Amino acid sequence: MKKFRDDFLWGGATAANQFEGAWDLDGKGPSISDMCTNGSHTNPKRLTTTIEPNTLYPSHEAIDFYHHYKEDIALFAEMGFKTFRFSINWTRIYPTGMEETPNEKGLEFYDNVINECVKYGIEPLITISHYEIPYALVEKYNGWYSREVIDCYVRYAKTLLDRYSDRVKYFLTFNEINSGTMPMGAVLSLGCVKGLNVAMNEIPDEPQIRYQGLHHQFIASALAVKYAHDNYPKVKMGDMNIFATMYPLTCNPDDVVGTQRAMQMMNWFCSDVQVRGEYPYYADRFFEEKGITIKKEAGDDEILKNGTVDFYTFSYYMSNCYSADPEKQAGKGNIIMGIPNPYLKASDWGWQIDPKGLRYSLNEIYSRYQIPLMVVENGLGAKDVLEEDGSVHDSYRIDYLRQHIEQMREAVADGVDLMGYTPWGCIDLVSASTGEMAKRYGFIYVKKYDDGTGDLSRSKKDSFDWYKKVIATNGEDLD
Question: Are 243 and 179 in contact (CB under 8 A)?
Fold first, then answer.
């Protein structure tokens, strides 16, 4: 069996808006996520146009990494992390996104976080934008629908590269950029929701707005990549996608062709642009059928061609089935789309567990792009029980991660160039999909609850020591 490479980047992943807290301290402005209330699996969170009194906004405190970063990074180091994926809160650096001068206190905070990682030999992996477009840009421009936001992002990205590239080698331009192909992505990823006060499951589907917003994100990403390549040649720039593996529900050719089309526009469209530097051929028919016209400016195609990423990263949580039969219940069970697979079990939140789908996905992605890959999100959201002695016996999480690591190892044996693995929510944090704390992912339990109570104390789960052993053996010992 071929082993993981010697410099394999084991670690964990987080997002600023889901664990950082301190939403209005030290000059930080409100982001789109700061305007989202809490929710649950059965009661979707809401986007509000103002901060409503007596309403819980989970991002406002989250787990308060802002004041616990030294403690948390020390725990990551104890597990043996080689890398730590975190995002930077855009509004901590540019409170409205439109300032010409960055907020120094915000920059200093991330200096401290990065320096703490470096102290322990942990490689920072920074996501430049992770579901936190400044809310002021939503109000003024309807988010990424307006081309003016490109300059705001590029100024922000250049600030990060200029400030941190002496200590940070890896940057991702956007988190799960292909979430913008779905209506919910219009909120968190694109901010194309000006004036809306609405539950997340009631977001209007406006393809023209979403795909125009995606075009502007493609241009912004390419400009940031080009700036890094021109000025910081040691820096590597990556993309980041949701990879929603899809299988035909049956061998009916209609299911097979339909699956292929769904895979193209969900899984390949954004990365084809960011990795290959041009819009894919199959997008033309999709745009025509949906009545979408992408407005480009002179030079856009050249910008895309000159700003391709160095490595590909993705989140993988589940797979889906596709059926052309309109009587099938598409969307039931899985968050993204599709029909439950009768051969798979599901998590407490209905996400189907498919470790072999990860091996399949890795092979599909690598055969298409032939650049290094990294799994930067993968994990099991579950209802953990904190025992009286502070322990959490999460054997179900260990089983989930073990099976997925085994399949990553199979993919490496297949010949896939896999550079790292950062399971999602390495410390408990707010769920992006539901806005709740009860859906826990981490190796570290945080005493924070859905009603906003809790003393924020940290304790190790059983998975903490298990993952520590996995890292120490470079994935050899998974027992």
Answer: no
Judge whether 246 lies within some domain: yes
pLDDT tens per residue, range 2-50:
899 999 999 999 999 999 999 999 999 999 999 999 998 788 899 999 9
Question: What's this model's pTM, rounded to 2 decimal places?
Answer: 0.97
Q: Which two tokens stand for residue 236?
A: 């590597």
Binning the chain into helix, strand and coil, the percentages to the nearest 5 are: 40, 15, 45
Question: What is the residue range of 86's domain?
Answer: 9-472
**Nearest Cα to 13, choosing from 92, 130, 93?**
130
d(CA 89, CA 103): 12
Tens-digit pLDDT profile for residues 183-208: 888 999 999 999 889 898 888 899 99
Give dist(CA 112, CA 240) in Å, integer. Answer: 25
Q: Is 436 a catalytic residue?
A: no
Integer Cα distance of 335 and 39 in angstroms: 15
The domain spanning residue 223 has which CATH number? 3.20.20.80
Q: What is the pLDDT of residue 330?
A: 60
In the predicted model, what is the mean pLDDT of the chain?
96
Count: domains in the chain = 1
- Catalytic residue from among 61, 116, 123, 176: 176
Q: Is residue 377 annotated as a catalytic residue, yes or no?
A: yes
Does 2 map to a domain?
A: no
| Integer Cα distance of 172 and 164 in angstroms | 14
81-91 mean pLDDT: 98
- For residue 102, the model assigns a pLDDT of 98
The catalytic residue among 61, 377, 410, 436 is 377
Identify the pLDDT of residue 332: 53
375 in a domain, yes or no?
yes
- Return the pLDDT at 336: 58
For 23-53, b/e burial (b = at least 16 CB within 10 A) is beeeebbbbbbbbbbbbebeebbbbbeeeee
Q: Is residue 477 part of a domain?
A: no
H or E stretch covering 148:
helix 148-164
Structure tokens at 94: 């540019």
- E strand map for 193-235: 198-199
- Closest Cα to residue 93, out of 18, 147, 31, 42? 31
What's the pLDDT at 326?
Answer: 85
